[in-house]
Amino acid sequence: MRYILSLPLLALAAPAIAVPAQELEARQFGGGSSSSTRNDVKNNAPCKPLTVIFARGTSEPGNVGSVAGPPFFNALNSALPNQVNVQGVDYAATWNGAFSGGDAAGSRTMASLVGQAVSQCPSTQIVLSGYSQGGQLVHNAAKTLSADLTAKISSVVIFGDPYNGQAVGSVPASKVDEICAPGDSICSRGGTGGGSPGGGGSGHLSYGSYATSAAAFVKSKFTPAA
Question: In sequence order, which residues have a C-beta less than 8 Å from that of residue 175 and are 6 or more positions away?
């Protein structure tokens, strides 16, 4: 995930063109018009049947990033219209955090957000999700959840997970969708942590194209209220 490389390459490709900051961010991280920040839980939005708690990857913008998060949310809204709230995890998302197994403070924040979402909306079902270092946070947070909170998790979706193949806390494996793209060395190392979080190859930036299948998995695990 060497996002910084896109800046000099972009400058070489069009040295005479001034690119607005928002457009540059979208090009750099593969995003479009979707927001890179979502705060439905923090803003106490009206309860919905599903609440996604999502952790972005290293150095991504906002609190949900743009590589995997927004395309996934858009696909979920198409699959389950008006039934999904989304809350991003606010954390530093630095390289040091990735090298150390996932930002510790961010992992605690993610677990806390699960509790907050269930407290505010007791009937909501939780989707834990993350991309790259965000996947590390999913694993770390899930290990700390009580049995009652774990039971509220209807599904887990992780894109480009450095811990691909490892259990997600005590969440049943049947509820977990680990998406590892071809050519992504971050998630293809058998759950060893993926080596350098700055690498991964082009496959590590391709997860927007898996949004529809990820949303279909979430829908298949979702149990509508009677």
Answer: 153, 154, 155, 156, 221
The residues pairing with 224 across neighbouring beta strands, listed in sequence order, are none
Asked whether the beta carbons of 203 and 184 are under 8 A apart, the reply is: yes
* From 130-134, 180-184, 190-194, the region with the lowest mean pLDDT: 190-194
Active-site residues, by number, are: 132, 184, 204
Does an H or E element contain 86, and which? Answer: strand 84-88
% of residues, the chain, pLDDT over 90: 74
Decide: 82 and 108 in contact? Cβ < 8 Å: no
**In terms of DSSP bridges, do strands 50-55 and 125-131 run parallel, antiparallel, or are they unpaired?**
parallel
Distance CA 33, CA 148 (A): 37
Amino acid letter at 184? D
Give me the residue label for tokens 């209807």: 154
DSSP for 115-167, written as a single string: HHHHHH-TTPEEEEEEETHHHHHHHHHHHH--HHHHHTEEEEEEES-TTTTS-
For residue 120, give the nearest of 47, 40, 39, 224 by alpha carbon: 47
- At 121, list the tokens: 């909306």
Split at pLDDT 50, 70, 90, the class of 225 is confident
Q: Say whether 220 sits in a helix, a strand or coil.
A: helix
Tokens encoding 92? 């530093």
Q: Above 80 in pLDDT, residue 192?
A: no
Tell me how long the chain is. Answer: 226
* Rounded Cα distance, 210 and 98, in Å: 23
